[in-house]
Write a structure and sequence with these properties.
- The protein is mainly beta.
- The protein has a domain of about 120 residues: Porin (Beta Barrel), CATH 2.40.160.
- It has one helix and 13 strands; from the N terminus they run H-E-E-E-E-E-E-E-E-E-E-E-E-E.
- The strands form three sheets. The chain has an eight-stranded antiparallel β-barrel. The chain has a three-stranded antiparallel sheet with strand order 1-13-12, with no helix packed on it.
- Strand 7 and strand 8 form a beta hairpin.
- The two termini are about 50 Å apart.
Length: about 190
């Protein structure tokens, strides 16, 4: 009779010592993951810039330009915004304040068309403006009421506006970790 009792005792001890060897082998299933969806979001790209234009027509000569561009780059990388700029006459007429322009702009990151209005201090006349802006180069024309046409070409510090911002998002109930969405599990 002692033998069956001894056998049960040995079996119980064997199970008790073997149990720690199985620790960590089971447990909860890790939460499911999915890939994050990637999209684009609009971004503002606002810059102060400087440049030099060469004018022809009503006044021929160089002007220094200082301005501000407020541009919004949409998720499809189309650009809309405005420019405010002032010029200072360097040659072709007595040095002094040249033109003050306010322009709207629209286009792609590589090329924006511009339309605007302003005032020419040298010609003492209001003006209308049309032009294009590419990376670091611009061209256009002013029509000064009275003195006439004043086309220009120039270089400036405006490169391409920055790309639309890339974003990552997860479905409801998931959290973003790098580029993976993990299900939120509340214990």
């Amino acid at each position: 009779m002692n033998r069956p009792l001894l056998g049960c005792a040995l079996a119980t001890l064997a199970v008790a010592f073997a149990a720690p060897a199985l620790a960590g082998k089971g447990g909860p299933v890790p939460p499911p993951t999915v890939a994050a969806s990637v999209g684009k979001e609009s971004r503002n790209d606002n810059k102060v810039y400087a440049g030099i234009n060469w004018n022809f027509g009503a006044r021929t000569g160089a002007t220094a330009v200082l301005g501000y561009r407020g541009a919004k780059v949409r998720s499809n990388n189309r650009v809309r915004g405005y420019k405010v700029e002032a010029s200072y006459i360097l040659s072709g007429a007595p040095m002094g304040f040249g033109e003050l322009r306010v322009k709207g702009l629209a286009g792609s990151r590589s090329l924006q068309g511009e339309l605007g209005a302003g005032y020419g201090f040298h010609g003492q006349a209001f003006l209308l403006n049309a032009g294009v802006q590419g990376p670091y180069v611009n061209a256009g024309t002013d029509y000064l009421f009275g003195p006439g046409w004043q086309p220009y070409i120039g270089v400036n510090t405006l490169g391409k506006p920055r790309h639309a911002r890339e974003t990552s998002s997860c479905p409801a109930g998931y959290t973003l970790s790098g580029s993976t969405c993990t299900l939120v599990v509340i214990d």
